[in-house]
């Protein structure tokens, strides 16, 4: 707990935790913008490449499938090399498939690039790992949820802004067939710029970078088991798999909605591409506050009633999400559909925040493995939803079925419980961090 921040000083960049807090959500935003930049352009791309409904479904599945593998790997890599190096490396590698999608010439090449772009979605695990190393137990849920929520708005911003970027490029004289390609280059070029800032202004943990600390013989809390030992420890913990399922139910649905919302509004309610983009974007923009609200509520509830109440809160939020999703699926006009989407979206984002408010407490010695496996669960949920849509053949029916499955998955949250010894140990760590707090909000 040494030097971990016990307060979030939102307008400060003086301390390492607060620099990580702000730069990690900014990097997250850029990565998610790049990951979902193709989604609002899919009606155009579908027409240009002559894609079938089945091919569009394959592209949506590809967009999230590879993220499962990369998220599983990226957590242990953070334990081994530190989040700073891993984050910068991921952003630099992500440039190539984003620019490749802009240069694609048909279904096969676009599908391949969309598959590779999915690797960028692993940025989430690094973000949650990095803030978990920087903030003490009393605020780590809020810190994780706020950075993830603000970063997640990159997906909503892509839905709303990419159509405007497309219109601006066309206003400059570009043909529609080349304008969408130029629009995709913007997030591709933003990632290396963000990587430079992240490398320059962050460090792995409050005491410094992992490599330097290890060279001085200093133990590292989140990476004690490093690499694959961290992964194996996570896989052996039943709580990880319960949260894997709940995250599939909340973040998996979130990603699925990002990929299908624009085309659903165009096909089902006959909206224009710009109007559909704004409607779909409103779902993602809820992450500006809703995910942070879920983490904040988890922290406040745990301060009063202990660790187990975090899981109980998650149960309530996922039930709300499932019921709201069924309402969205059965909406028969645009206005009720948008209202229902915003209601279930609120619960969805809050449930995501509440899930990762629990992650730092599962196994502190295998933080990377825990964060990676649970994070992969979100993408498993998105891929499963994509295959469900392929099998059902209707977005509306898929949404209704997902609502029922999400509601049932809430039972997994109730299964997450901790031993008396575990709760006593976490309570002692919390009290130690608070007792050691200096005037600047950093444990001394």
From TrEMBL:
Subcellular localization: Membrane
Assigned keywords, A-Z: Membrane, Nitrate assimilation, Transmembrane, Transmembrane helix
Matching InterPro entries: MFS, MFS_dom, MFS_trans_sf, NO3_transporter
UniProt cross-references to PROSITE patterns, sorted A to Z: MFS (PS50850)
Family: Belongs to the major facilitator superfamily. Nitrate/nitrite porter (TC 2.A.1.8) family.
Bilayer topology: Multi-pass membrane protein
Signal peptide: none
Chief place of localization: membrane
Keyword Lyase in annotation: no
Parts of the chain that traverse the membrane: 20-45, 57-74, 86-103, 109-129, 150-173, 179-199, 240-265, 271-290, 311-331, 337-359, 366-389, 395-416
Residue stretches making up the Major facilitator superfamily (MFS) profile domain: 20-421
Organism: Paraburkholderia nemoris
Domain of life: Bacteria
Protein name: Nitrate/nitrite transporter NrtP
């Amino acid at each position: 707990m040494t030097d971990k921040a016990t307060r979030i000083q939102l307008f400060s960049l003086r301390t390492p935790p607060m620099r990580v807090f702000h730069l990690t959500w900014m990097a997250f935003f850029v990565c998610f913008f790049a990951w979902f930049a193709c989604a609002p352009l899919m009606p155009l791309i579908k027409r240009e490449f002559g894609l079938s409904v089945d091919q569009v479904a394959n592209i949506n599945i590809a967009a999230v499938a590879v993220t499962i593998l990369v998220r599983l790997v990226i957590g242990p890599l953070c334990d081994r090399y530190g989040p700073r190096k891993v984050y910068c490396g991921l952003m630099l590698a992500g440039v190539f498939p984003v620019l490749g999608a802009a240069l694609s010439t048909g279904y096969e090449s676009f599908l391949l690039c969309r598959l590779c772009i999915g690797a960028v979605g692993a940025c989430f695990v690094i973000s949650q790992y990095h803030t978990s190393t920087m903030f003490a137990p009393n605020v780590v849920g809020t810190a994780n949820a706020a950075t993830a929520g603000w970063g997640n708005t990159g997906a909503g911003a892509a839905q709303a802004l990419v159509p405007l970027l497309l219109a601006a490029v066309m206003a400059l004289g570009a043909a529609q067939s080349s304008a969408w390609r130029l629009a995709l280059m913007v997030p591709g070029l933003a990632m290396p710029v963000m990587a430079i800032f992240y490398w320059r202004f962050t460090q792995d943990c409050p005491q410094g970078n992992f490599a330097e600390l290890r060279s001085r013989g200093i133990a590292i809390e989140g990476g004690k088991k490093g690499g694959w030992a961290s992964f194996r420890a996570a896989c052996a913990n039943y709580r990880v798999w319960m949260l894997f399922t709940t995250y599939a139910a909340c973040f998996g649905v979130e990603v699925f909605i990002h990929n299908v919302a624009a085309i659903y509004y165009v096909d089902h309610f006959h909206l224009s591409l710009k109007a559909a983009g704004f409607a779909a974007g409103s779902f993602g923009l809820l992450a500006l506050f809703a995910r942070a609200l879920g983490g904040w509520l988890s922290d406040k509830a745990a301060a009063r009633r202990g660790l187990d109440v975090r899981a109980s809160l998650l149960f309530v939020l996922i039930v709300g999400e499932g019921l709201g999703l069924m309402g969205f699926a059965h909406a028969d006009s645009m206005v009720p559909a948008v209202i229902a989407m915003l209601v279930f979206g609120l619960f969805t984002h809050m449930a995501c925040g509440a899930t990762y408010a629990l992650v730092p407490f599962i196994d502190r010695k295998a933080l990377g493995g825990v964060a990676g496996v649970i994070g992969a669960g979100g993408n498993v949920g998105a891929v499963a939803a994509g295959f469900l849509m392929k099998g059902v053949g209707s977005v509306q029916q898929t949404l209704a079925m997902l609502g029922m499955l999400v509601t049932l998955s809430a039972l997994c949250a109730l299964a997450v419980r901790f031993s008396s010894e575990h709760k006593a140990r976490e309570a002692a760590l919390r009290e130690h961090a608070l007792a050691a707090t200096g005037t600047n909000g950093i444990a001394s």
